[in-house]
Amino acid sequence: MKNLKHNPSREPVEDSEERTSRGIQSVEVGGQLLKALANTGRRMALKDLARAAEMTPAKAHPYLVSFGKLGLIEQDPVSGHYGLGPLSMQLGLISLQQVDPVRLAIAELPGLAQRVGCTVSAAVWGAQGPVIIRVEEGPTPVYVAMRHGIPASLRHTGTGKIFAAYRHPAEVAAALEREGLPAALEEPAFAAELADIRRGGLSRVRDELLPGISAMAVPVFDGFGRLALAIAAIGPSAWLDLSDDSAQARALRETGQSLSQRLGAASPRPG
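Request: output the structure for the sequence above.
Response:
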Protein backbone atom coordinates (compact mmCIF):
# COMPACT_ATOMS: atom_id res chain seq x y z
CA MET A 1 0.00 0.00 0.00
CA LYS A 2 1.24 3.48 -0.84
CA ASN A 3 2.12 5.87 1.96
CA LEU A 4 -0.37 8.74 1.93
CA LYS A 5 -0.12 12.16 3.56
CA HIS A 6 -2.98 14.15 5.09
CA ASN A 7 -4.69 16.28 2.49
CA PRO A 8 -7.55 18.65 3.30
CA SER A 9 -9.06 18.05 -0.15
CA ARG A 10 -9.36 14.37 0.79
CA GLU A 11 -7.46 13.33 -2.33
CA PRO A 12 -4.57 10.89 -1.75
CA VAL A 13 -1.10 12.43 -2.00
CA GLU A 14 1.87 10.10 -2.32
CA ASP A 15 5.18 10.64 -0.55
CA SER A 16 7.38 13.18 -2.36
CA GLU A 17 10.12 10.57 -2.93
CA GLU A 18 7.71 8.31 -4.78
CA ARG A 19 6.30 11.20 -6.81
CA THR A 20 9.71 12.38 -7.95
CA SER A 21 11.06 8.92 -8.81
CA ARG A 22 8.10 7.84 -10.93
CA GLY A 23 8.31 8.69 -14.62
CA ILE A 24 6.14 8.21 -17.68
CA GLN A 25 7.08 4.93 -19.31
CA SER A 26 5.84 5.84 -22.78
CA VAL A 27 8.14 8.88 -22.84
CA GLU A 28 11.09 6.73 -21.84
CA VAL A 29 10.24 4.14 -24.49
CA GLY A 30 9.86 6.73 -27.24
CA GLY A 31 13.06 8.41 -26.13
CA GLN A 32 14.98 5.35 -27.29
CA LEU A 33 14.22 6.41 -30.87
CA LEU A 34 15.77 9.83 -30.27
CA LYS A 35 18.80 8.19 -28.64
CA ALA A 36 19.21 5.88 -31.63
CA LEU A 37 19.22 8.81 -34.06
CA ALA A 38 21.66 10.74 -31.89
CA ASN A 39 24.01 7.75 -31.60
CA THR A 40 24.08 6.94 -35.31
CA GLY A 41 24.32 10.56 -36.43
CA ARG A 42 22.43 9.94 -39.69
CA ARG A 43 18.93 9.51 -41.09
CA MET A 44 17.52 6.01 -40.79
CA ALA A 45 14.81 3.89 -42.39
CA LEU A 46 11.92 2.98 -40.11
CA LYS A 47 12.91 -0.67 -39.79
CA ASP A 48 16.54 0.19 -38.97
CA LEU A 49 15.57 2.89 -36.50
CA ALA A 50 13.09 0.60 -34.76
CA ARG A 51 15.67 -2.16 -34.55
CA ALA A 52 18.23 0.23 -33.02
CA ALA A 53 15.62 1.25 -30.43
CA GLU A 54 14.78 -2.41 -29.76
CA MET A 55 11.14 -2.20 -30.84
CA THR A 56 9.01 -3.21 -33.80
CA PRO A 57 8.31 -0.77 -36.67
CA ALA A 58 4.60 -0.87 -35.79
CA LYS A 59 5.38 0.22 -32.24
CA ALA A 60 7.88 2.86 -33.31
CA HIS A 61 5.73 4.57 -35.93
CA PRO A 62 3.20 6.29 -33.58
CA TYR A 63 6.07 7.74 -31.56
CA LEU A 64 7.67 9.07 -34.73
CA VAL A 65 4.43 10.71 -35.79
CA SER A 66 4.11 12.50 -32.44
CA PHE A 67 7.78 13.50 -32.40
CA GLY A 68 7.35 14.82 -35.93
CA LYS A 69 4.46 17.06 -34.84
CA LEU A 70 6.70 18.49 -32.11
CA GLY A 71 9.63 19.00 -34.46
CA LEU A 72 11.87 16.56 -32.62
CA ILE A 73 12.00 14.28 -35.67
CA GLU A 74 11.48 14.92 -39.37
CA GLN A 75 10.99 12.53 -42.29
CA ASP A 76 12.77 13.00 -45.60
CA PRO A 77 10.06 13.34 -48.27
CA VAL A 78 12.13 11.46 -50.88
CA SER A 79 13.74 8.57 -49.02
CA GLY A 80 11.23 8.34 -46.18
CA HIS A 81 14.10 8.11 -43.71
CA TYR A 82 13.85 9.72 -40.30
CA GLY A 83 16.27 12.23 -38.80
CA LEU A 84 16.40 14.72 -35.96
CA GLY A 85 14.14 17.70 -36.51
CA PRO A 86 14.50 21.46 -36.00
CA LEU A 87 13.44 21.41 -32.34
CA SER A 88 16.12 18.82 -31.57
CA MET A 89 18.69 21.07 -33.23
CA GLN A 90 17.49 24.12 -31.27
CA LEU A 91 17.67 22.18 -28.00
CA GLY A 92 21.17 21.00 -28.84
CA LEU A 93 22.42 24.49 -29.64
CA ILE A 94 20.90 25.93 -26.47
CA SER A 95 22.49 23.14 -24.44
CA LEU A 96 25.89 23.88 -25.97
CA GLN A 97 25.53 27.55 -25.05
CA GLN A 98 24.68 26.72 -21.46
CA VAL A 99 27.38 24.17 -20.72
CA ASP A 100 30.69 25.24 -19.20
CA PRO A 101 33.53 22.87 -20.17
CA VAL A 102 35.88 24.20 -17.48
CA ARG A 103 33.32 23.70 -14.72
CA LEU A 104 32.56 20.16 -15.92
CA ALA A 105 36.25 19.24 -16.13
CA ILE A 106 37.14 20.64 -12.72
CA ALA A 107 34.34 18.62 -11.13
CA GLU A 108 35.80 15.41 -12.63
CA LEU A 109 39.39 15.92 -11.50
CA PRO A 110 39.16 14.74 -7.84
CA GLY A 111 37.65 11.41 -8.83
CA LEU A 112 40.08 11.00 -11.71
CA ALA A 113 43.06 11.65 -9.41
CA GLN A 114 41.94 8.76 -7.20
CA ARG A 115 41.37 6.46 -10.19
CA VAL A 116 44.79 7.03 -11.75
CA GLY A 117 46.51 7.38 -8.38
CA CYS A 118 48.46 10.53 -9.19
CA THR A 119 48.19 14.26 -9.82
CA VAL A 120 45.88 15.36 -12.62
CA SER A 121 45.29 18.69 -14.32
CA ALA A 122 43.09 20.54 -16.80
CA ALA A 123 44.36 23.07 -19.33
CA VAL A 124 42.87 25.40 -21.92
CA TRP A 125 44.29 27.41 -24.81
CA GLY A 126 45.19 30.90 -23.58
CA ALA A 127 46.46 34.03 -25.29
CA GLN A 128 49.99 32.64 -25.59
CA GLY A 129 49.32 28.89 -25.71
CA PRO A 130 48.25 26.10 -23.32
CA VAL A 131 47.62 27.21 -19.73
CA ILE A 132 46.95 24.94 -16.75
CA ILE A 133 43.78 26.07 -15.04
CA ARG A 134 43.40 23.41 -12.37
CA VAL A 135 45.63 20.92 -10.56
CA GLU A 136 44.29 18.13 -8.36
CA GLU A 137 46.82 16.23 -6.29
CA GLY A 138 46.50 12.49 -6.07
CA PRO A 139 47.64 9.92 -3.53
CA THR A 140 51.08 9.67 -5.18
CA PRO A 141 53.00 12.91 -4.56
CA VAL A 142 54.73 14.62 -7.47
CA TYR A 143 57.39 17.16 -6.65
CA VAL A 144 56.84 19.37 -9.68
CA ALA A 145 56.02 23.07 -9.74
CA MET A 146 52.50 22.56 -11.16
CA ARG A 147 50.00 25.24 -10.25
CA HIS A 148 47.10 27.13 -11.74
CA GLY A 149 48.00 29.66 -14.40
CA ILE A 150 51.37 28.30 -15.56
CA PRO A 151 51.93 27.62 -19.28
CA ALA A 152 52.50 24.12 -20.65
CA SER A 153 55.25 23.50 -23.18
CA LEU A 154 53.85 22.45 -26.56
CA ARG A 155 56.94 20.40 -27.28
CA HIS A 156 57.78 18.77 -23.96
CA THR A 157 54.57 18.19 -21.95
CA GLY A 158 51.72 15.77 -22.43
CA THR A 159 49.22 18.62 -22.12
CA GLY A 160 51.04 20.78 -24.65
CA LYS A 161 51.30 17.99 -27.19
CA ILE A 162 47.52 17.53 -27.15
CA PHE A 163 47.13 21.16 -28.17
CA ALA A 164 49.93 20.87 -30.72
CA ALA A 165 48.11 17.90 -32.28
CA TYR A 166 44.62 19.39 -32.44
CA ARG A 167 44.88 23.19 -32.61
CA HIS A 168 45.26 25.00 -35.94
CA PRO A 169 48.86 24.63 -37.22
CA ALA A 170 49.27 28.40 -37.56
CA GLU A 171 48.35 28.93 -33.90
CA VAL A 172 50.64 26.12 -32.83
CA ALA A 173 53.54 27.44 -34.93
CA ALA A 174 53.17 30.93 -33.43
CA ALA A 175 53.09 29.53 -29.89
CA LEU A 176 56.13 27.33 -30.57
CA GLU A 177 58.00 30.36 -31.84
CA ARG A 178 57.21 32.21 -28.61
CA GLU A 179 58.50 29.13 -26.81
CA GLY A 180 61.78 29.46 -28.73
CA LEU A 181 61.10 26.47 -30.98
CA PRO A 182 60.16 27.99 -34.35
CA ALA A 183 61.03 24.91 -36.41
CA ALA A 184 59.53 22.26 -34.12
CA LEU A 185 56.66 21.37 -36.46
CA GLU A 186 59.17 20.61 -39.21
CA GLU A 187 60.95 17.99 -37.09
CA PRO A 188 60.01 14.56 -38.51
CA ALA A 189 59.98 12.94 -35.07
CA PHE A 190 57.65 15.59 -33.61
CA ALA A 191 55.36 15.50 -36.66
CA ALA A 192 55.13 11.71 -36.38
CA GLU A 193 54.37 11.99 -32.67
CA LEU A 194 51.53 14.44 -33.30
CA ALA A 195 50.10 12.18 -35.99
CA ASP A 196 50.19 9.28 -33.52
CA ILE A 197 48.36 11.41 -30.93
CA ARG A 198 45.62 12.21 -33.45
CA ARG A 199 45.23 8.51 -34.25
CA GLY A 200 45.12 7.29 -30.67
CA GLY A 201 43.85 10.31 -28.73
CA LEU A 202 46.60 10.03 -26.12
CA SER A 203 49.88 11.90 -25.64
CA ARG A 204 52.74 10.45 -23.60
CA VAL A 205 55.87 12.03 -22.15
CA ARG A 206 58.61 10.16 -20.32
CA ASP A 207 61.47 11.96 -18.57
CA GLU A 208 61.42 14.92 -20.98
CA LEU A 209 61.33 17.99 -18.77
CA LEU A 210 62.32 16.29 -15.52
CA PRO A 211 64.11 12.96 -15.01
CA GLY A 212 61.90 10.42 -13.30
CA ILE A 213 58.65 12.22 -14.14
CA SER A 214 56.19 11.11 -16.83
CA ALA A 215 52.80 12.28 -18.02
CA MET A 216 50.01 11.50 -20.40
CA ALA A 217 47.07 13.57 -21.60
CA VAL A 218 43.84 13.31 -23.59
CA PRO A 219 41.72 15.81 -25.52
CA VAL A 220 38.23 17.01 -24.66
CA PHE A 221 36.15 18.22 -27.62
CA ASP A 222 33.05 20.41 -27.74
CA GLY A 223 29.90 19.90 -29.79
CA PHE A 224 31.47 21.61 -32.81
CA GLY A 225 34.43 19.22 -32.89
CA ARG A 226 36.86 21.79 -31.50
CA LEU A 227 39.40 21.07 -28.81
CA ALA A 228 37.96 22.53 -25.61
CA LEU A 229 40.65 21.51 -23.13
CA ALA A 230 43.17 18.83 -22.22
CA ILE A 231 43.15 16.52 -19.21
CA ALA A 232 46.51 15.18 -18.02
CA ALA A 233 47.98 12.82 -15.42
CA ILE A 234 51.51 13.25 -14.10
CA GLY A 235 53.51 11.00 -11.80
CA PRO A 236 56.78 9.18 -11.15
CA SER A 237 57.97 7.37 -14.28
CA ALA A 238 58.39 4.15 -12.32
CA TRP A 239 54.74 4.22 -11.32
CA LEU A 240 52.80 5.87 -14.16
CA ASP A 241 52.07 3.21 -16.79
CA LEU A 242 52.18 4.86 -20.22
CA SER A 243 51.01 1.74 -22.03
CA ASP A 244 48.15 2.41 -24.40
CA ASP A 245 45.88 -0.10 -22.65
CA SER A 246 46.97 0.49 -19.05
CA ALA A 247 44.31 1.07 -16.38
CA GLN A 248 45.55 4.64 -15.96
CA ALA A 249 45.36 5.37 -19.69
CA ARG A 250 41.87 3.87 -19.85
CA ALA A 251 40.68 5.99 -16.93
CA LEU A 252 42.07 9.12 -18.56
CA ARG A 253 40.49 8.29 -21.93
CA GLU A 254 37.13 7.47 -20.37
CA THR A 255 37.09 10.81 -18.58
CA GLY A 256 38.01 12.69 -21.75
CA GLN A 257 35.37 10.89 -23.80
CA SER A 258 32.71 11.36 -21.12
CA LEU A 259 33.39 15.09 -20.92
CA SER A 260 33.39 15.37 -24.71
CA GLN A 261 30.00 13.67 -24.95
CA ARG A 262 28.58 15.93 -22.23
CA LEU A 263 29.79 18.90 -24.28
CA GLY A 264 27.92 17.57 -27.32
CA ALA A 265 30.74 15.85 -29.18
CA ALA A 266 29.82 12.80 -31.22
CA SER A 267 30.42 9.45 -29.57
CA PRO A 268 33.44 7.59 -30.96
CA ARG A 269 32.41 4.83 -33.31
CA PRO A 270 34.19 1.48 -33.53
CA GLY A 271 36.44 0.92 -36.53
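Residues 199 and 271 are 12 Å apart (CA to CA).
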